[in-house]
Specification:
Number of strands: 15
CATH class: Mainly Beta
Shape: globular
Largest sheet: 12 strands, antiparallel, barrel
Structural class: mainly beta
Number of domains: 1
CATH topology: Porin
CATH superfamily: monomeric porin ompg
C-alpha cells in the first residue's frame, strides 16, 4: 500500500504540468544506489542507459537520497534480548555530484563524488504512524528507541561482536570513476554498452577505511514501440573484504537490473526498475544474502538542457538486507 500510494503521488506531481502528447525521446532509468547502512562502504552498480553523452558535451547531475534502514535478528524484539545476531536501525542522507564528458559519439567518462551523513534521523515516528494508520506490519519498530542509530551484531567468524554505534556524522564518500562505451546499436534505438567503474578510497569521517574497487557492467536498451523501452544490465564488482570496522564483506558480487520506461506525455517519463545483487556481508550471524529493491521514478524534461528526477525506493523481498524506504530527488544539466 505504501508503494502504491507513493507511486500515485509521484506520477500526479510530475505529470501535473505535462502536455498530453506522446514523445519518442527516451531518458532511461535513474541511477539510484542502495544506501543501506552496511552497503555504503561498497561499490555498487546502478541501473543506467547505454546511451552516451554526445561528443564534446558536458552533463552535470546533483542527486539527493534520503533512506531509512531497519532490520533485526534476535530472540525477542526490543533493547534487552538474550541473543542478538544483528540490529540495524538508522538513516542515511546522500548528496552526490556527477560530471560527465562525451569524448566520442560512443564513449563518455564520468566522475561521481558523494557527500554522506548517517545517524538516528527523524523518520521513525512517521513510519510508525504510517504502519498504524493503514494496519501494516511494523516489523517491531515500536519496541526499539525512536530516531536512534544502532548498528551492531555478532560475528560468525569467531571475532565476537562488532558495533558501528558511534560511527555517525558526515563525510565524503569514495570518489568513483566510470567509462561507458556503446559498442552496438544507435542512440535512438536498440543498443548495448560496456560500463567500467573504479572507486578510490577517499572517504572521510565515518566513511573512511574502504578499499579500492572495480566493476564491469553490460547494459542494453530495447524499444518496445513508440512509448516504451526496456533496459537491462548485468555485471560484477571486486573489492577487498576488509574488514571495515569489524565487518568482512564478500570480495566479489553480482549485480543485475531490469527497467521499463513509459513516456505517456511529452516532457514526462515513468520508470519502474528492479535491482538485485548477491551477498554483501560474509561474517554477520544469519545476515541474509539476497538484496532486491524496487525503484519507481519520474523524469521530467524542464527544457532542452534541464531535467528533474523524483523517485522512491521500496524493499522488494527482505528489508533485512536493503533499505526499508528511500526518497530521491535530482536535477541534471547538459551543455
Amino acid at each position: 500500500m505504501r508503494a502504491r500510494l507513493a507511486c500515485l503521488l509521484l506520477a500526479s506531481a510530475v505529470a501535473a504540468g505535462a502536455r498530453a502528447q506522446a514523445t519518442d525521446e527516451a531518458r532511461g532509468p535513474v541511477e539510484i544506489r542502495d544506501e543501506h547502512l552496511l552497503a555504503q562502504p561498497r561499490l555498487t552498480l546502478p541501473a543506467l542507459s547505454p546511451v552516451t553523452t554526445p561528443a564534446g558535451r558536458w552533463s552535470f547531475e546533483v542527486g539527493a537520497l534520503w533512506s531509512n534502514s531497519f532490520a533485526w535478528e534476535q530472540d525477542v524484539p526490543g533493547e534487552h534480548p538474550a541473543v542478538r545476531n544483528f540490529l540495524i536501525d538508522g538513516e542515511a542522507h546522500t548528496l552526490d555530484l556527477t560530471v560527465r564528458r562525451g569524448l566520442t559519439a560512443d564513449l563518455d567518462l564520468a566522475l561521481r563524488l558523494p557527500l554522506r551523513w548517517r545517524g538516528g534521523g527523524v523518520m521513525d515516528g512517521l513510519i510508525d504512524w504510517w504502519h498504524h494508520t493503514f494496519s501494516l506490519p511494523d516489523g517491531g519498530r515500536p519496541y526499539f528507541p525512536t530516531n536512534a542509530f544502532q548498528l551492531n551484531g555478532t560475528r560468525n567468524d569467531g571475532g565476537g561482536r562488532f558495533s558501528w554505534d558511534d560511527e555517525t556524522g558526515s563525510g565524503l564518500g569514495d570518489l568513483e570513476l566510470a567509462s561507458r562505451w556503446r559498442f552496438a546499436g544507435a542512440p535512438s534505438g536498440a543498443s548495448l554498452a560496456l560500463v567500467a567503474r573504479a572507486s578510490v578510497p577517499t572517504g572521510t569521517g565515518p566513511f573512511a577505511g574502504n578499499g579500492p574497487a572495480g566493476g564491469l557492467q553490460l547494459v542494453g536498451r530495447q524499444p518496445l514501440g513508440r512509448r516504451v523501452d526496456v533496459y537491462a544490465g548485468l555485471g560484477g564488482t571486486l573489492q577487498p573484504r576488509g574488514p571495515v570496522r569489524g565487518v568482512a564483506y564478500e570480495a566479489a558480487r553480482l549485480h543485475g537490473f531490469l527497467a521499463f520506461e513509459w513516456r505517456p506525455w511529452d516532457p514526462f517519463s515513468l520508470v519502474v526498475e528492479t535491482n538485485a545483487a548477491s551477498r554483501l556481508v560474509g561474517n554477520i550471524l544469519d545476515y541474509p544474502g539476497t538484496h532486491w529493491l524496487l525503484d519507481v521514478s519520474g523524469r521530467v524534461q524542464l527544457g532542452r538542457r534541464t531535467r528533474l528526477d523524483l523517485g522512491f525506493t521500496e524493499n522488494f523481498k527482505d528489508q533485512l538486507s536493503t533499505v526499508d524506504f528511500a526518497i530521491y530527488a535530482g536535477i541534471g544539466f547538459r551543455r
